[in-house]
Amino acid sequence: MTENSGTETKIGWDIITTNPYILQTGDVIHVQGKGVLSFLIRLFSRGFFEPRSWASHSAMVLRITDGVEIIEATSKVGKRPIDVYKGKTSKLTIARISRGLNDDEKKEIIAKSEYYEGKKYGVIKIFLHFLDYILFGWNIFRRLACIDKYPICSWIVAYVYDRVLNYHFGIPPNAAQPDDISDFCVEDNWDFVWADSDESLADFNKAYKIRAARK
């Protein structure tokens, strides 16, 4: 489990295949992709003097039925089974807000998430995030990126939590990046409930030990 989590982290795809209910609506998925774009996101979506970010992408668990349905923004916002990541080289960890969510909150999270379904990816927002990076991480241009019509991956998570729970990941929702979300989940003692492999969890923990040592 993570250093800050009081919950044992379940490991491996077999666990959520046989018992998907270890995950819940609203659980936040931290993804570290392996492509060039993922590398660039990890490089530039961070404070200027921070180590390279661990997460390059954010998503969220939407429903649990026979399997785990997630919602995320790629070329557009859509719902997919979490199994789309199975067998790929991406690393995944999943965190749950420590206080948990009640049934009404989960219904509201589903409704707000589905509001974004089908909306096109806000490519211009990535450019604004980059401009903030070259300004030593100042949150200037990201604050201007407030058009709800064109979300990015972290926008979905940050705005759903803002509108439903009035919860911020340490930063205004229009400025949140995957790195901000994963950072704050650790800092606010979220429960890390699942990882795709022991290696992914160890790598995540190693990254945050390094960050803690540099603060």
Give the SSE layout.
Blueprint (H helix, E strand, L loop, with lengths): L9 E2 L1 H6 L9 E5 L3 H9 L12 E8 L3 E6 L3 E5 L9 E6 L6 H13 L7 H12 L6 H4 L8 H13 L12 H10 L3 E5 L2 H17 L1
Parallel strand pairs: 1-7
Antiparallel strand pairs: 2-3, 2-6, 3-4, 4-5, 6-7
Helix pairs in contact: 3-6
Protein architecture, described:
The protein is an alpha+beta fold and 215 residues long. It has a single domain (10-195), classed as endopeptidase fold (from Nostoc punctiforme) (Alpha-Beta Complex). It has helices spanning 13-18, 36-44, 103-115, 123-134, 141-144, 153-165, 178-187, 198-214, and strands at 10-11, 28-32, 57-64, 68-73, 77-81, 91-96, 191-195. Strands 1-7-6-2-3-4-5 form a 7-stranded mixed sheet. The model has no long low-confidence stretch (mean pLDDT 81).
What does the average pLDDT come to?
A: 81
Number of domains: 1
Which structural category fits the helices and strands? Answer: alpha+beta
For the record, the CATH architecture stands as: Alpha-Beta Complex
The largest sheet is: 7 strands, mixed
CATH superfamily: endopeptidase domain like (from Nostoc punctiforme)
Distance between the termini: 22 Å
Silhouette: globular
Order of helices and strands: EHEHEEEEHHHHHEH
Poorly predicted regions are none
Q: DSSP helix count?
A: 8
State the total count of DSSP E strands.
Answer: 7
Helix content: 25-40%
Strand order of the largest sheet: 1-7-6-2-3-4-5
CATH domain class name: Alpha Beta
Gyration radius, rounded: 16 Å
Estimated share of beta-strand residues = 15-25%
